[in-house]
Amino acid sequence: MNDAQSLQQAIDEPVQLVEYDSTWPARYAAERDRLLQRFHAELLDVQHIGSTAMPGMPAKPIIDVMAGVASMAMADALFEPMLDYGYVTSIEFNAGLSDRRWFMRHANGRRTHHLHVVVHNGELWRQRLAFRDALSRDPALAARYADLKRELASRHQADREAYTQAKGEFVRFVIAQ
């Protein structure tokens, strides 16, 4: 499989959850270190977010990384350097995002990492960490989210955007707490 085929297969990859994998934190740490080695002056902090950051949580086996920068102007300045550093993205998709820039790494036709570049300590930064931390502290809340994810992954297997949007109400509820 060539790189273009691998990318297209990764883009079209269905929503499929797997049980928690104890290697996810180490995979995050390796990517964090890789990013900080190259972008040490630009990235103010790098955090593991999403379901792979929550022990015991079923997840799509894609490591979600959130990198904090000083401003969206800095996020935009990192656009081409991130592409040169092994990430891919959609210019059209990012044009619709006002509060972040989104990138993906892939290998062998599968997504391996999502990178969300956001303003450090901005609203989205705080929300994503609040959600992760709330579920990590509350096993009953985490179990409700796991059940919802399984149901939505079954319903929206071929539509990643619908899957993500369908989780939105639960995420907003948790953040509001």
From TrEMBL:
Extract the Gene3D superfamilies matched here.
Beta Polymerase, domain 2
Read off the InterPro entries from this record.
GrpB/CoaE (IPR007344), NT_sf (IPR043519)
Question: Could you tell me which Pfam families the record lists for this protein?
Answer: GrpB
- From the Swiss-Prot or TrEMBL record, give the protein name: GrpB family protein
Q: Which organism is it from?
A: Halomonas salipaludis
